Amino acid sequence: GQAAGLWLVEEDGMLFADELTKIVADKKAEQGDREKVAGKWTAYETKLVDQAIELFKQRCMRQAEDKKLEATISFEVLSREIEDFPKRTLTDSTYFVEEWGEGVSAEAWFYSTRGVTASWSPGAPVLFAEVLQGLLPKFVERVKDQGFSTCRHEAGTWKVTVSWPAPEAEDGD
Fold first, then answer.
1. Helices (H) and strands (E) in the chain, counts
2. Domain of residue 46, residue span
């Protein structure tokens, strides 16, 4: 119908209120789809943090073998050693994500970090630092769960410093 007819009955016989109900249903379905997409990043992120923790432990073991009681390790440096970690590219002195990894996408990362009601622009570049920044607190929490005497993230850096107790002194030391 004409614009005035829109308020009463659509061409297909749908009332305006029915149109609104359909819009709500479509939006809910869209958000459900977005939640599934976001879930892919959430699962992937867990895998990345697991791998970072293993590398972190290896670094700490090397420090302990050198009779040291602490280690300072950069999460960003660890991320370069994780094969599945999103790959970055330098453009105009800024790092952007170039490749996401198996089964994940910028869209998955976006909805996981911004929420499913946020508006995603396909093709929009994602700052690599933003991906690292999102993972860092999860990584630090997992490091804290490892039982270190101290664990601190140096503000403004990717560095995490941990310490562990000295062995009990033996007679003759």
1. 4, 5
2. 13-163
Q: Is the pTM of this model over 0.85?
A: no
Task: Let me know: does 56 contact 143? Beta carbons within 8 Å.
Answer: yes
| DSSP label of 1 | -
Question: Does residue 172 lie within any of the structural domains?
Answer: no
Number of domains composing the chain:
1
Query: Hey, which residues does 15 pair with through a beta bridge?
Result: 9
Q: Is residue 49 part of a domain?
A: yes
Separation CA 110–CA 37 (nearest Å): 9
User: How far are the Cα atoms of 5, 31, 38, 100, 105 from residue 34, in angstroms, in the given order?
Assistant: 34, 5, 6, 17, 12
Integer CA distances (angstroms), 136 to 153, 157, 158, in order: 9, 10, 8
Q: What is the pLDDT of residues 95-151, one digit of tens each?
A: 999 999 989 999 999 999 999 889 889 999 999 999 999 999 999 999 999 999 999
Structure tokens at 56: 């972190």
pLDDT digits (tens, 9 = 90+) for 102-113: 899 999 999 999
Q: Does residue 169 form part of some domain?
A: no
- Of 95, 93, 162, 159, the C-alpha closest to 131 is 95
Token pair 């990894």: residue: 101
Residue 96 lies in a domain: yes
